[in-house]
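Bench notes, bay 3.
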Amino acid sequence: MKNICFYFQLHQPLRLKRYRFFDIGQDHYYFDDFQVEDRIRNTVEQAYLPANRTISEMIRSSNGKFKCAFSISGVVLEQLEQYAPEVIDSFKELAATGCVEFLAQPYAHSLSSVFDESEFKMQVEMHTAKIENLFGKKPTAFANAELIYSDEIGEVIYKMGYKTVLIEEAKHVMGWKSSNFVYTHSYQPKLKLLVRNVKLSEDIFLRFSSPSWSDFPLTAEKFIGWIAASPAEEEIFNIWMGYETFGQTQRFETGIFDFLKAIPYHSMENQIGFVTPTEAAKKSEPAAALQIPYPISWWGHEKDLSPWSGNDLQNEALSKLYSIGERVRLCQDKPLLHDWLEIQSADHFRYMSHKDAFGSNYETAYDAFMNYMNVLADFMERVDTQYPTTIDNEELNELLKTINNQAEEIEALEEKLKRRRKATLND
């Protein structure tokens, strides 16, 4: 039986304010709260809430047969908790249906999987705990930020306990192979790989409302017809896109919500089902192993990391940022740790791209670079104030252990003193 697996990505970075050289050492707050709130509220009202209502209706009207998955960054979850808690509530309602799966990812939607393995592991654990705390479901499947994946990254993900990963359909990896099968990691056969179907995904989020497209207008009947007409042996169709597709990228007036609502009806007519990623990996036998020695991503024709690390500006910023990772992780200063996560979002480096600075509000890549580096310079000063670079990380770690041990000893002695005082009073 053919099955469709829908994945919806939710991520919005904290936008940096204009931060000048003379702010370094003077102003330790980096974010444009007005712009952040304005953007998240618009996205919530135009996309997230109406899309959640539509998904809920699809689940009810199909008697629970419609299923899908959500990949929601920790960064956007924090924004929703602060500015739009009603969206969190609506996701809790979806979670209660048992028809949605929440995927794990690095908390900050960062590039840490490529540049700092320890940071990557920490962020994944942090994100998993956040999802479980909010929605009562511990993620068992994984979708990395920007669908970044390689054999090396896959091995790290597998060793963290995940058995299913969504990856991109990169032609130089897939060759003649179809995306509509389950695959495995090249040398960890228990790690299942689900491959995004690029055409079907982009037909919705990219081409849906384009009158110049040869298949315009796209109807649910036509879309499901393409899947039904595919070779009989093709079992799983992984369709991944940003959740803002519904209401923002494709506006309400294009009919995108009516299209979405009609999907279950036409699927059931054609004996096509819906599965979550974990279900998809369990239902189908792997067709083959995929060898992916170098990182791939979902963006562009090259499907590589060039949107985030394709020029000298980006590489300089990334090198500086991750050079202090080990030192920051020794820190217990909550505001500093929070800022550390926020300045890692992949978007900040995308804005420095000469090729495609998608979503940028800077005039040039150089403007984005200079603004970010000013922020990073101040952040590094804050780290150095607490943990001077004159002390190496190993020595610093030993000092912190000593301080923590002393704190525990003091706490134990205080508790002992309380018991003695209580015993004296009773006597």
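Next record in the batch:
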Amino acid sequence: MRPPFIPIFAAVLTAGCAMTTPSTSVHQPMSTRPAPMAVNTQANGAIYQSSTARLALFEDRRARFVGDVLTVVLEERTTASKNTSSKANRSGEVSIGVPVATRLPGASLEGAALTGTSDSTFEGGGNSAANNVFTGNVSVTVIEVYPNGNLLVSGEKQVTINQGTEYIRFSGVVNPLNVGAANTVSSTRVADARIEYKGRGYMSEAQTMGFLQRFFLSASPF
């Protein structure tokens, strides 16, 4: 009879060796196909047919329908700093004198004086700072068109070098008025933007804490 922990150990080992795609929080799906174009059965002989054209005759080629692609220029730069300090002092003094009393318990303490003092000091401080810069380009797909014309976009770029894969993911809501003539939009003009940069491979796994170590770290009271 096999020990009961062997199947569990095998399942954990298999799950750890499997090369799965990192989880994501960007809007899903990250790509979609455009809707089929309507077939015009009443052609008037002209080259341009407005009923089947994807773009207006005198407009730039910009994303506006589900399945269209636009390029997001990543221009993220965040800087934050915080300083905190606190200080508290507390002191007290108590004096007690025993009066002269005869024929009572504790007569040996007659005339004694008791004095007590306490002093407490607390001082704390903290300092934190963060500076993040993320630049680059990523092309995304329109996955939904809102009633007001705004575009919900989502996309992913995978870069595999040697035995490691890097994932750059982006999603958000784009106002068509902010899309430039080159069919590009700055990430600073995207609402509800979600940007991810994750890796997969032995280099990323070497920088990840094991699940058992995370358990003891969270359960330890020290």
